[in-house]
Amino acid sequence: MSKIVVLGAAESGVGAALLAKAKGFEVFVSDAAHISDRYKQDLIDARIAFEEGGHDFDAILSADEVVKSPGIPEKAPIIKALHEKNIPVISELEFGARFTKAKFVAITGSNGKTTTTLLTYHLLRMAGLNVGLAGNVGQSLARQVIEDKFEYYVLEVSSFQLDGMYQFKADIAILTNITPDHLDRYEYKFQNYINSKFRVLQNMDKSGYFITYQQDEVVQNELANRTLQTNLLPISLAEKVETGAYSDHDQLHFMLPNGQRFYVAHTSLTINGKHNYLNAMGATLVAALWGVSPEKIEEGLKTFQNAPHRLEEVATINGVRFVNDSKATNVDSVKYALDSFKQPVVLIAGGVDKGNDYSLIENLVLEKVKALVCMGKDNEPLHKAFDGKVTKIVDTYSIADAVREAAHLAENGDVVLLSPACASFDLFRNYEDRGDQFKLQVKHLDDESLHSL
To answer: In which pathway does it act (predicted)?
Structure first.
């Protein structure tokens, strides 16, 4: 009996362990941290051996194969030890995909992948396809494959997951864009990160389709140096395309490889901003390729509700809109957010800086940001980028102070936008916690308190 060791006992790890157990493997789960009660009970109920609070190297190094949580870096001592013994280390998605014949759309990119994933899933599900949602959202693929009841899966795939995928083959791949992100995991070499993202194409052939943004220079430069083995479907905001999709001033136009043509009005979308036109084009192409009619697609577009923390409207107080974009953990995400507003913006930004190049948004900030509220333990990178350029910059060190300062600086008709450009781990558990706390603080504001600030 082969032995599978799973490193990390959150959703992906426990899902992989349950699948391995169901398929008859000997299974051992190891987590260097505390395992939550919910996942611990899953392991106990399945009679799966586990440890928490540290790694037993001898037990782990006796594995025939290891399924690793995407949060564990390659430089971790246990991963180095596994590589030294030539023990295969894979991701949960790689493991789960072995046990299903379902079709996959794999969606990756530095920005936009979650919205595109959720919208694609919504369009397919509303059209009646037998579809599952997995990857960075929903239940783990491995957990769902135990019953193997879906014919299609929509997967949001991070670079960390792609790094552990080798035999996985997508039927359709979407690469939304590539901007510098997570470089601390890639030896601070942008090309290493680019290579990781392009792993989404591995094993694809002429039976598949690759959807990507035609105006993304990084992607296009990389494509110029690669031989593409699958069919390219570009999506464009700037020019017409012969096959794929493009946006003009009021419509999204779709041209399918089979000759089908249709369009969708911008007004049919429930998500705003040019970046969301790209997300909608990618999701719509997937649905159309898998046989969903234009009428069903438009119905789905009109009923879609995006996930929290992505340009989420929180409240309007005294004419000031408060918008939660906590998911914006890099500069490119902030670029898309600022581009979505015509009103003056009071921007709340800051956190754990990942080597951000703020020059990428300097022109947008100068054009749209009337005040910058820095929120983090170290606001120096923001000051270095914008001192003398933004009229008003204030420092805060808590979400409560940030919201109060932003409310004080905003006037009727302005937007208070939380779009941090940074990771959240200096003051919060994660970006969801940051967004939830922002929403809570906004709800504490009422008209009287806003006037009195």
So the answer is: Cell wall biogenesis; peptidoglycan biosynthesis
Q: Is 259 annotated as a binding residue?
A: no
Return the CATH fold of 3-90. Answer: Rossmann fold (3.40.50)
pLDDT in tens, 124-160: 999 999 999 999 988 999 999 999 999 999 999 999 9
109 among annotated binding-site residues: yes
Query: Which tokens go with 189?
Result: 């070499």
| Domain at 94-303, CATH from 1.10.3720.10, 2.30.180.10, 3.40.30.10, 3.40.1190.10 | 3.40.1190.10
Determine the topology of domain 312-452 in CATH.
Answer: Protein-Tyrosine Phosphatase; Chain A (3.90.190)
Q: Rounded mean pLDDT of 445-451?
A: 55
User: Is 227 marked as a binding-site residue?
Assistant: no
What digits encode the pLDDT tens for the residues 286-335?
Answer: 999 999 999 999 999 999 988 789 888 899 999 999 999 999 988 988 99
Ligand-binding annotation for 110, yes or no, is yes
Question: Was 114 annotated as part of a binding site?
Answer: yes
Task: Return phi, psi of residue 432, to 5°.
Answer: -65, -45
